[in-house]
UniProtKB/TrEMBL annotation:
Main function: Mediates influx of magnesium ions. Alternates between open and closed states. Activated by low cytoplasmic Mg(2+) levels. Inactive when cytoplasmic Mg(2+) levels are high.
Protein name: Magnesium transport protein CorA
Keyword Transport carried by entry: yes
Subcellular location: Cell membrane; Membrane
Broad class of the protein's primary localization: membrane
Transmembrane regions: 301-320, 332-352
Gene Ontology, cellular component aspect: plasma membrane
Organism: Nocardia mexicana
Residue span of region Disordered: 1-21
GO MF: cobalt ion binding; cobalt ion transmembrane transporter activity; magnesium ion binding; magnesium ion transmembrane transporter activity
């Protein structure tokens, strides 16, 4: 009778033989849009990044714009191979959490922008107020690659506005770079307007008598303003370099628009600095208000303790076990003691209220 070979067991696989290999996700899953633009017009049809770049080189004009959302290392490596991107910015684009910066690799530019979004919240609640994300932009003579991290960093509206303005889009990849920077700085302006409303509401609340605003809410808003400042302020230098750098692959007309973006960014940075100073003053005012309230409470407590000390002292004296004490066996001694106690307590109550201690 032939022997049946044992069935191999897969129990414990991944411990002795190592982890199972990870199946790479197709790059198309990370691509939001890929289009070829020639003379400001979008060419019809859908292309892969390689096909789009081949079309541009075949025509000898135009550029391809590829939009990615949270690509992994494998997907970003494939895009880098198509456009010849340097490995250092490619690594930054995968891992994110970068400071705003501008780097140049030969004829290519790599710009990092931090995006912000205002989160609706209750003024008295301690919760997240500013949500941040990132947009990385690779700019070459024949391409633009945008990498987004975060759910509020969509660029669909920017693409549509550019496509509706072929004259602007005809300026090339630099026009896309300007449009994205302008979109991000405009979002800074919107967020700072919302933060300004919160600061004004907190100022009114703090200086309102008997308000219930907790100091923790002011601390939370100040922390969010600090996060906003870290996202916004470092972008000043990249915008200055882009608007003034004549040796960069950015058309002169685009640099003029970028100077306007830089001016708006400077105004936003100044407002954020004002928010920080105002919140610091509010914290000092709120703490002073708490201190005054504590002093008032302590005066009230001390006043009632002083009033209660009179009957306590009297009861302590007459609670002693002595035979020879004044009025101990007098018929009206008990009544007289109460009259004296109430008289002294009433006098203290009148005096303390007259001096605004009670």
């Amino acid at each position: 009778m032939p022997q049946i070979p044992p069935i191999p067991s897969f129990r414990g696989r991944g411990k002795a033989d190592g982890p199972l290999p990870r199946i790479p996700v197709p790059t198309a899953r990370a691509i939001i849009d890929c289009a070829v633009y020639v003379e400001g017009e979008r060419l019809p049809g859908r292309n892969t990044p390689a096909e789009g770049l081949a079309t541009v080189r075949e025509r000898g004009a135009g550029f391809v714009w590829v939009g990615l959302h949270t690509p992994d290392q494998h997907q970003m490596a494939e895009i880098a191979g198509v456009f010849g991107l340097h490995e250092l910015p490619v690594e930054d684009a995968v891992h994110a959490r970068q400071r705003p910066k501008l780097e140049r690799y030969d004829d290519d530019l790599f710009l990092v922008l931090r995006t912000v979004k205002y989160v609706e919240h209750d003024l008295h609640a301690v919760s997240e107020i500013v949500e941040t994300g990132e947009i990385m932009v690779f700019v070459g003579r024949e391409f633009v690659v945008t990498v987004r991290h975060g759910e509020h960093t969509g660029l669909t509206g920017v693409r549509r506005e550019l496509e509706a303005n072929p004259q602007q889009l005809a300026l090339g990849p630099g026009a896309v770079l300007h449009a994205i920077a302008d979109h991000v700085v405009d979002s800074y302006i919107s967020v700072t307007q919302e933060i300004e409303s919160d600061v004004e509401e907190m100022e009114e609340e703090v200086f309102t008598p008997r308000s219930r605003l907790a100091v923790e809410s002011i601390y939370q808003l100040k922390r969010e303003v600090v996060e906003l400042r870290r996202a916004v302020n470092p972008l000043a230098l990249p915008l200055q370099v882009l608007s003034r750098g004549t040796d960069l692959p950015v058309p002169k007309e685009v640099r003029r628009y970028l100077r306007d973006v830089a001016d708006h960014h400077t105004a936003v940075a100044e407002r954020i600095s004002d928010f920080d100073d105002a919140l610091s003053s509010l914290i000092n005012a709120a703490l002073a208000k708490v201190t005054v309230q504590q002093n008032t409470d302590m005066r009230k407590i001390s006043s009632w303790v002083a009033i209660a000390a009179v009957p306590t002292m009297t009861a302590g004296i007459y609670g002693m076990n002595f035979d020879f004490m004044p009025e101990l066996h007098w018929k009206y001694g008990y009544l007289m003691v109460w009259i004296i106690i109430l008289t002294i307590c009433g006098g203290l109550l009148y005096t303390l209220r007259r001096n605004n201690w009670l």
